[in-house]
Amino acid sequence: QLQASGGGVVQPGGSLRLSCVASGFRYSSFAMSWFRQAPGKERELISHIWSINGSPYYPDSVRGRFALSRDNAKNTLYLQMNDLKPEDTASYYCAAVVGDGLLHLTPDEYDYWGQGTQVTVSS
């Protein structure tokens, strides 16, 4: 299971930190990602971190503003989101996929999903 938290309402330029706690599987063996989905849009990958050493992946839309990290001792994934923009408004989902060293871009590839946490950026 994955339990996501940390969403909320923030003004443009503000920050939020999302967390995702994993249980019931060997967290350290799984690559982890955050996706987001806005109303009427497809679910998109916004960050990915491998189970082994390596720099996280970010698409252009969030690179330089978002920072992904994981604490394998606590089975927890974090997403620090800075300089938030109205277009970041969406439901955010954490997801886990078996660690194979590949970048998994599509939701169908993932084995476990969190329940989603809402982020709203509005003045």
| Run of helices and strands | EEEEEEEEEE
Distance between the ends: 34 Å
Number of DSSP helices?
A: 0
Shape: globular
Range of helix content:
under 10%
Mean pLDDT comes to: 94
Provide the low-confidence segments as ranges: none
Q: Count the beta strands.
A: 10
Class computed from helices, strands and strand pairing: mainly beta
Radius of gyration based on Cα positions: 13 Å
Beta strand %: over 45%
Largest sheet: 6 strands, mixed
What distinguishing features does this structure have?
6-stranded mixed sheet, 4-stranded antiparallel sheet, mainly beta, globular, 123 residues, single chain
Secondary-structure blueprint of this entry?
Elements: E1 2-5, E2 8-10, E3 16-22, E4 30-37, E5 44-49, E6 66-71, E7 76-81, E8 90-98, E9 112-113, E10 117-121
Parallel strand pairs: 2-10
Antiparallel strand pairs: 1-3, 3-7, 4-5, 4-8, 6-7, 8-9, 8-10
Your description of this structure?
- This protein is mainly beta.
- The chain is 0% helix and 46% strand.
- The chain contains no helices and ten strands.
- The chain has strands spanning 2-5, 8-10, 16-22, 30-37, 44-49, 66-71, 76-81, 90-98, 112-113, 117-121.
- Strands 2, 4, 5, 8, 9 and 10 form a six-stranded mixed beta sheet that branches. Strands 1-3-7-6 form a four-stranded antiparallel beta sheet, with no helix packed on it.
- The protein is globular.
What is this entry, summarized?
This protein is an all-beta fold and 123 residues long.
